[in-house]
Design brief:
Chains A, B: It is a multi-pass membrane protein. The structure is a homodimer. Chain A is mostly helical. The first copy, chain A, folds into three domains: about 130 residues, MgtE N-terminal fold; about 110 residues, CBS-domain; about 170 residues, SLC41 divalent cation transporters, integral membrane domain (Tetracycline Repressor, domain 2, Orthogonal Bundle). Helices cover about 70% and strands about 5% of the residues of chain A. In chain A, the strands form two sheets. Chain A has a three-stranded mixed beta sheet. The first copy, chain A, has a three-stranded mixed beta sheet with strand order 4-5-6. The longest helix of chain A has about 35 residues.
């Protein structure tokens, strides 16, 4: 990609030159020939003064094409809109695909949103207002209402003719949605199938009636699953009365999949990994500290527990040597089983009967891993310290601690999911800090029983 | 989706009834009306005998449409192919999109692959053999050669006519690729733009010449980035001489994004989260144990280190109380900074000047988090034990341990990336086990300096 990038930067330098010299004609030619995404990359390199020049050169619709590709959560977007003439900004928003326009407006103050909407034709403003009502992480929040619909009685030839009208505005023309006289969605047809039809064929007779649709308040992860399974480029969105209200296109689903992956990853590490590059160390620290301090407080319980066994430690300070080995290894095992459980929950719905089967399996897995790890540590410690009773204590404690951590690692996310929480919040650090507590309890309980056998031997 | 699932299962029961009664006509009608993905879900519910009946009822091309949607890494796929008549299987593979056929063949023994390829027309077999040569995780490994290409001199009207020929075989007809007389890729046009053109227009004059393509040995993550940025439905793949060799479609990219997310997530937890549901506890344990045992051995160094300080511990067994608090919290901080670094590496290329800026920032972030956490623990321990010297020792050790863990968490993945390794392999458990070692060293060193001040006070 480096060759591409170099060519792009040369083009950017050229464009800045035209902008300086106010050579608007050459600027427009070069700029409009670029991909919308490259246009937006260029836009983001400009300062306020240069941007003002740009607004003078480009029409609102040309600006809108570029804004369609901007990430709606860029922190600068509100400033961009507010530095534009209100009418210009409203026109631009109106030319954008309505799902993108709604995403942009979601990041503005309500008063500014109203200001822009007032400048738009009433029908368009109401349409956007409707989209703004949906929860952002549902089908309604990511759908667009710019799609191609026909009455099912249309003929193939007419449909191809009429499609041209949609080609300018619809977000995709590669699927046609066919409605009956009650506006119910009754069929779908791809453009690919359409061009294979004879012009005089009624679409009603050849359309696909086995419609896969999503409900308007379906969660976005569920929508992503439909795309993964069926490999669609777009999916229709219907309300509870099966009236079609919009479509979701595959580019928005890629964003959803990325966001979900990011959230899961952040959850596992107990940090929001979406820290902006522009965040300074203070900002970054302020995002990480709440988790760290919470976990620190949790770990103080472990400290109190060890404190409770201070008598035992005074008798056998050798016990202190293996605290971190046991807590660390059990924490690692717990993190593994947590990750497996969270991932499985993300892929499948798990019902009651599966629940007990999975817990049973995890218990057995914990037993096997615990046993193998326990035997290893028994041998290592036994040989190292020439004390197989001590080795046995450490090994047994390790085995039990791993079993408990494994069980907690799968039980906690599954219980969270069944209570309706996002299981990905149960992070690796949380599980390992929690398992420190149980590991220490197990360790000192076992050590207490055997202490007379390994001390002084 | 539950309503949809119920309807689907009713349909499956119906289909099984037809299969039992050998009512092939009704079976074909119901089966072929379903989406390919639903067909494949049905196929996976059949036993060997029922599948044999299916092979008798369906044509190889109908079978191929369904096989196109099967996950190529399903462990049963080789068995499915080998239970078919060789000629039937070869025909089916030939009807499949060639990227999918190649993916399926990749999971078979070489001898079986040759057997199937021998049954195919020579050109098709050679084509597949070509695809099998590419590394599976590169552009070549996920591309298809079933795309629409024209000479740039074609007129819009002719192109639409000729497109019908491609509609049956090409994986997407929504982009047309235009070649010059040397077969170099010189232009791209979407079907959407094509239908807006007058029939007599030369595509050469209206095609998009600002072509974004990927090189055949580009890594698949880089390909995914292009799709994310430009929101394409397909991207052309070219060889080093800019000759077009294939296209990559968005459905394959969704798979790539999922796979990459899974790998990152697995890396962070030090476990392959893609454990099959069908894996028994032994299999699952055998996948998790290598990491656990490796980390156990690493943690034995920590144990040896604590052992080295046994004299100190014997003097002040209170020190043992805070071992797990310090190692645990530093490990959590290290995991956070690791996750941030790995994620940033996945999104951006990081060059030398960024490297030092990022490390500097991470050092400062570590200082702030370490300082705040250190002060907290100083107060907690000081008040709890009425011993602010001890509190100071624990707080100072905590602060230093967090700073080191933070630095390691970002330095290790960045160094791995710059040596060409996948940074996601540096897992959370690895970082926290490693940081146990440094934390213990820091803790006892500081405690050693101050021991006379807090013991016996």
């Amino acid at each position: 990609m480096d060759e591409n990038e170099k060519k792009l930067h040369e083009k950017f330098d050229l464009l800045k030159g035209y902008l300086d010299k106010e050579d608007n004609l050459r600027f427009r030619k070069t700029y409009l020939d670029m991909h919308f995404y490259d246009q937006s990359t260029f836009y983001l390199t400009l300062d306020a003064e240069e941007r003002q020049k740009l607004y003078g050169i480009l029409q609102p619709n040309e600006m809108g094409d570029m804004f369609d590709t901007l990430q709606d959560d860029l922190p600068e977007i509100p400033d961009f809109l507010l530095e534009m003439d209100v009418k210009y900004a409203a026109d631009m928003l109106n030319y954008m695909y309505d799902d993108n326009a709604a995403d942009v407006l979601e990041h503005l103050d309500k008063s500014h949103v109203d200001e822009f909407l007032e400048q738009m034709p009433k029908a368009d403003a109401n349409n956007l207002r409707g989209l703004l009502h949906y929860d952002t992480e549902t089908a309604g929040g990511i759908m667009t209402t710019d799609y191609v619909e026909f009455n099912e009685s249309i003929k193939a030839g007419e449909a191809i003719q009429d499609l041209r009208k949609f080609a300018e505005t619809a977000e995709t023309i590669y699927y046609l949605y066919l409605l009956d006289d009650h506006k119910d969605l009754v069929g779908v047809m791809s453009l690919r199938d359409l061009i294979l039809q004879k012009p005089e064929v009624n679409l009603r007779d050849v359309m696909n009636t086995d419609i896969i649709s999503v409900n308007v308040d379906e969660e976005q992860e569920e929508v992503a699953k439909v795309f993964r399974d069926y490999e669609f480029l777009a999916v229709p969105v219907v309300d509870h009365a099966n009236h079609m209200v919009g479509i979701i296109t595959v580019d928005d689903v890629i964003e959803v999949i990325d966001d979900e992956a990011q959230q899961d990853y952040s959850g596992l590490a107990a940090v929001n990994v979406d820290e902006s590059e522009h965040d300074g160390p203070l900002k970054a620290a302020s995002k990480r500290l709440p988790w760290l301090i919470t976990l620190l407080l949790l770990s103080m319980f472990t400290a109190t527990l060890v404190n409770h066994y201070e008598g035992l430690l005074a008798q056998a300070s050798i016990l202190a040597v293996f605290i971190s080995t046991i807590t660390g290894t059990a924490g690692n095992a717990g993190t593994q089983s947590l990750a497996v459980a969270v991932r499985r929950l993300a892929v499948d719905e798990i019902d009651k009967s599966d629940f007990f089967k999975l817990i049973g399996k995890e218990l057995l897995t914990g037993f096997v891993t615990g046993f193998v790890t326990g035997v290893s540590v028994f041998l290592i410690v036994g040989i190292w310290k020439s004390n197989f009773v001590l080795g046995f204590v450490i090994g047994l404690a390790m085995c039990a601690a791993i079993m408990v951590a494994n069980l907690a690692g799968s039980l906690i996310p599954m219980m969270m999911a069944s209570f309706g929480f996002d299981p990905a919040v149960a992070s690796g650090p949380f599980i390992s800090t929690l398992s420190d507590l149980t590991s220490v309890l197990i360790y000192f309980s076992i050590a207490g029983v055997f202490i007379s056998h390994f001390v002084g031997s």
